[in-house]
Amino acid sequence: MKLIQLSMAALVLTSASMTTQAQSETEIHFIMCGGEVREADQKVVDQFIVDNEGVKINLEAVPWGTCQDKSLTLAAAGDPPSIAYMGSRTLRQLSKNDLIVPAEIDAAQPYQEGVLNTVTIEGTTWGYPHAFSTKALYINCDIVEESGQECKAPATWDEMYAMAKGVIDKTEVAGIGLAGKDFDNTMHQFLNYLYSNGGTVIDSKTGENKLDSKETRETLEFYGKLVEVAQEGPTAWERDQLTDLFNDGKIAMYVNGPWGTGKHNEEINQIIAPVPAGPSGESGTILITDSIVVFKGSGHEELAQKLAQLITSGDSQYDLDSSWGLTPILDYEKLGQEAPYYLEGDWPTFTKTISTGGPEPLVEEFKSLQAVFTNMVQGIILQDDTVDNLVTIAGEELDEAL
Predict the structure, then answer these.
(1) Phi and psi for 135 in degrees, rounded to 5?
(2) pLDDT tens, 221-250?
């Protein structure tokens, strides 16, 4: 009888201990879009757990196709994740619906110029940039030289068009690959040219729609002109398919990100150049980021901010950028990094236009934004309307999307 009483007492004490432990343990739900957790990020998460006693992190990798919907559904149901890695394009929708809190970014962090514009809406920064890409022009020198031209980087739109025309006139190859399919990178391809012509879509400080402009008209006119020297039927092609055409020797050049080299056949004799400058600007690029966001209402906002700051700063961010092959988000030389990876190889081409680039525009409904540009670009490719009317309509449609 005495033994039973002791056992019961031990059970009560164990139960109480477990209850106390459960009450003291804090679980951070971290959703990682993309379906995988990079080693650099996992290392930061593991160290965060060690440094914060009683904190458990439920790190959930979710494929891109369902990640945003899952995060929004949980937040709408009153059970938001504490923190998430998502496309920065979602920030306006998340912030407008009061689902996230502003990012508490350290002003001393030496972000590359323009990067914070990808996460800023009317002066408020809503995400911590965590993955970054820029674009450049890939040129197959063997094809260009076969057409009787010197293979050198065109500095202007006119020089690029002349090179493309020389190719299509003297060979059986299209001068340039042009994206025009109903897909997001049709917008991205157009914006590479717009930002290389001094154009603006949305003012990140005021939220003002700046699309209806002389710079946009010049860009759309040039995009239509490129149809003359591009592959047949650009409205059927998106950027990744242009990579296939480039590999097959069917186009002499096209615009892609730093990952392009790794997708190209090794025997291609290529050079990589900045996107040429338009008549009203200087060479630029679209700046696209994914970012870490802190959700509202989890009860762990302070810890989530701390984790977000840690995973997106200093050595942590450098490990991700260098191991993943990303355009550098931070100026790591200012942080004391000796001989950073992006000073070598083709990287200077992808970093030199960061300061003159522009962000992927932030709207509440991304599909609406995509439609604005697809309609405008396809309109000029198919010659459905004039440049002036197409840009005017696009400006009006962007007003509705905002």
Answers:
(1) -130, 160
(2) 999 999 999 999 999 999 999 999 999 999
Q: Residue 146: exposed, middle, or buried by beta-carbon count in 10 A (0-12, 13-18, 19+)?
A: middle
Element (H, E) at 216: helix 214-226
d(CA 391, CA 75): 37
- Is 16 a residue whose pLDDT tops 50? no
Quick one: tokens of 154?
Answer: 């065109």
Confidence of residue 24 (pLDDT cuts 50, 70, 90): low
DSSP class of 106 = -
Judged by phi (left if over 0) then psi (alpha if -120 to 50, else beta), residue 81 lies in beta
From the list 47, 114, 29, the residue with the least C-alpha distance to 311 is 47
Q: Tell me which amino acid residue 241 is.
A: Q
- H/E stretch holding 132 reads strand 128-133
Buried/exposed 309-327: b ≥16 CB within 10 Å, e otherwise? bbbbbbebbbbbbbeeebb
CA distance to 157, 216, 236, per residue, from 239 (Å): 20, 21, 11
Q: Do residues 331 and 112 lie in contact, with contact meaning Cβ atoms separated by under 8 Å? A: yes
Query: How far apart, in Å, are the Cα atoms of 203 and each of 159, 207, 238?
Result: 30, 5, 27
How is the beta sheet containing 253-256 ordered, strand by strand?
253-256, 136-140, 270-273
Longest CA pairwise span in the chain (Å): 102
Residue 323 forms beta bridges with which residues? none
Confidence grade of residue 12 (pLDDT, cut at 50, 70, 90): very low
In 279-365, which ranges are continuous DSSP H helix? 301-311, 314-324, 347-351
Among 374, 385, 401, which residue's Cα sits nearest to residue 186?
374
**Model pTM score:** 0.90
| pLDDT at res. 303 | 96
CA-to-CA separations, 292 to 53, 83, 117, 244, 308, in angstroms, rounded:
23, 7, 15, 33, 6
Question: Cα 179 to chain center, whole Å?
Answer: 18
> What domains sit in the chain, N to C, each tagged with a CATH number?
25-132+288-349 (3.40.190.10), 136-284+363-401 (3.40.190.10)
Contact present, 168 and 174 (Cβ < 8 Å): yes
Q: How many CA atoms lie within 13 A of 306 on its CB side?
A: 12
Type of residue numbered 197: N
